[in-house]
TrEMBL record:
EC number(s) from the headed UniProt entry: 2.8.1.6
Amino-acid positions noted as binding [4Fe-4S] cluster in the UniProt annotation, renumbered to this chain: 70, 74, 77
Organism: Uliginosibacterium aquaticum
Pfam families found in the cross-reference section: BATS, Radical_SAM
Family: Belongs to the radical SAM superfamily. Biotin synthase family.
Protein name: Biotin synthase
Known pathway: Cofactor biosynthesis; biotin biosynthesis; biotin from 7,8-diaminononanoate: step 2/2
Length: 330
């Protein structure tokens, strides 16, 4: 896997990220990455404390409501039918199963329930039951979030009418690096879906994955892409690659944990009012790395034993770490 050229890049932003006052240039973001670690963390803490309770972390639960069989070729994903990962495709879950899981998540303290389906784009026959799931989960008193792939015209309107609060659609990686990770769609396809949900007043959950084989410059480009969305996403999941046997990225070397923490801090500084979510890869992190991530401004996690198809720290481990750090889960 070749990493991006370290040469200077100019980003071609989508219409939802047109140049405006206060925009973050790639160079400015790259300069943040280069700060001495203590200075970077100090600056991130200053920003974080200005907008959030520094000792509170929001919890969401993520459920795969339709697993595997996806036609896309995302190089990191076990759910692509193009790769032999041992994952068995499963049909869409029933409403009863989803509501049971949502209630259990609420009982364990989650405030948001996210439902993910492995589709390129939802067909009409698929969207109808999902709309009912959104409506019924909302009645439980939970915030609702879905990730269903790329949306067609009119689908965002229907999700909004059902009561959807958030739509997750990650940008994954830098524009210039994107075709090395995915070829079956473009970053502009993803930005088009973000535009669709934003136009309906649905909040945006959009982040990326680090450790795909990209270099630091590409991470700076990714953060600039996200920060320059107008407005910035309300939730920004920062995922660490979980290498999965059978995928093209199975042998990519692990990202240095300190570099991951730097990415969290830069996301916090550039997107001061967004929830920065410590997402995939937590299971592989030490408690000390996670503690540094919270210090760097991460203030949201996925709770529960699974993240779609990968392992996640169990509730007891999270509770124990929060107790040691004096963090309140909300």
């Amino acid at each position: 896997m070749n990493s991006c050229s370290p040469a200077e890049h100019k980003i071609s932003f989508h219409r939802s990220a047109e140049v405006r006052e206060g925009e973050w240039s790639t160079d400015a973001v790259a300069e943040l990455f280069e700060l001495p670690f203590a200075d970077l963390i100090f600056r991130a803490q200053e920003v974080h404390r200005k907008h959030f309770d520094a000792n509170a972390v929001q919890r969401s639960t993520l459920l795969s409501i339709k697993t595997g069989g996806c036609s896309e070729d995302c190089s990191y994903c076990s759910q692509s039918k193009r790769y032999k990962t041992g994952l068995e495709a499963e049909p869409l879950m029933s409403l009863e199963e989803v509501l049971k899981m949502a209630q259990a998540a609420k009982d364990k303290g989650a405030s948001r329930f996210c439902m993910g389906a492995a589709w390129r784009s939802p067909k009409e026959k698929d969207l109808e039951p999902v709309l009912e799931m959104v409506s019924e989960v909302k009645k439980l008193g939970l915030e609702t979030c879905v990730t269903l792939g790329m949306l067609k015209d009119g689908q965002a309107e229907r999700l909004k009418a059902a009561g959807l609060d958030y739509y997750n659609h990650n940008l994954d990686t830098a524009r210039e690096f994107y075709s090395e990770i995915v070829t079956t769609h473009t970053i502009d396809d993803r930005l088009d879906t973000i535009d669709k949900v934003r136009s309906q007043g649905i909040k945006v959950c959009a982040g990326g994955i680090v450790g795909l084989g990209e270099n630091r410059r590409a991470r700076a480009v990714l953060i600039a892409q996200l920060a320059n969305l107008n407005p910035a996403p309300e939730s920004v999941p920062i995922n660490g690659l979980v290498p999965i046997a059978g995928t093209p990225l199975a042998e990519v070397p692990a990202l240095d944990p300190i570099e991951f923490v730097r990415t969290i801090a830069v996301a916090r500084i550039t997107m001061p009012t967004s929830y920065v979510r410590l997402s995939a890869g937590r299971q592989q992190m030490s408690d000390e790395t996670q503690a540094l991530c919270y210090l760097a401004g991460a203030n949201s996690i996925f709770s529960g034993d699974r993240l779609l198809t990968t392992d996640n720290p169990d509730a007891d481990r999270d509770a124990g770490l929060f107790a040691r750090l004096g963090i309140q889960a909300v």
